[in-house]
Amino acid sequence: MKSKVRTFIAVEVDEGVRSRASKLIKQLRQSGADVTWVAPENMHLTIKFLGDVDYRDVYHVCRAVEECVATVEPFTVEIRGVGAFPSLERPRVIWLGVDLGAAEMEALNERVESALSAIGFPREGRKFHAHLTLGRVRKSGRAVEHLVAMLREYQDVEFGPTTVDQLVIFSSELLPTGPVYEPMGHAELRG
């Protein structure tokens, strides 16, 4: 039996956002670019990626997250616009951005970072940027140039609202068919 579990903390997105994002992916596939696209059921807004966590520590992670968000009021985020890391010109990760509610997402991330650093998990070195990953580009080439042109058309498109009323602590198992995410705990924002 494995002693560690790949773990992350995220906000599940509303079905309307998943549906619109899936339609966009269907259109972007036509570019022919070599991209690993995210399955609709796996779409989420990551708050913190922990990596491999000892099974014995999962309970402590869940408790720390529950406690740090219990006094936070639920809020709504607006999913809007397409972007890419490191840049739209050289996409490696294609994502949908968070417009309305981005500051609240940053504050939520900071609460989680603080709570988890207090129990021994390192803080993320990069600045937090709330986003919904659509896909990861595997190779560059002419098809990617076509993909970039398509992405530019969606820089201002709204994909809808998502209510942030709980965080989910997920396990992530990487399989040849793609990742499988399973909830290990929930932390409600009760205000």
TrEMBL record:
Q: Tell me, what is one Gene Ontology molecular-function annotation carried by this entry?
A: 2',3'-cyclic-nucleotide 3'-phosphodiesterase activity
**Pfam families in the record:** LigT_PEase (PF02834)
* UniProt keyword terms in alphabetical order: Hydrolase, Ligase
Which residues are named in the active-site annotation?
44 (proton donor), 131 (proton acceptor)
EC number from the UniProt entry:
3.1.4.58
Q: What NCBIfam families does UniProt report for this protein, alphabetically?
A: 2_5_ligase (TIGR02258)
Family assignment from sequence similarity: Belongs to the 2H phosphoesterase superfamily. ThpR family.
The protein, known as: RNA 2',3'-cyclic phosphodiesterase
Q: What is the lineage of its organism?
A: Bacteria, Pseudomonadati, Planctomycetota, Planctomycetia, Pirellulales
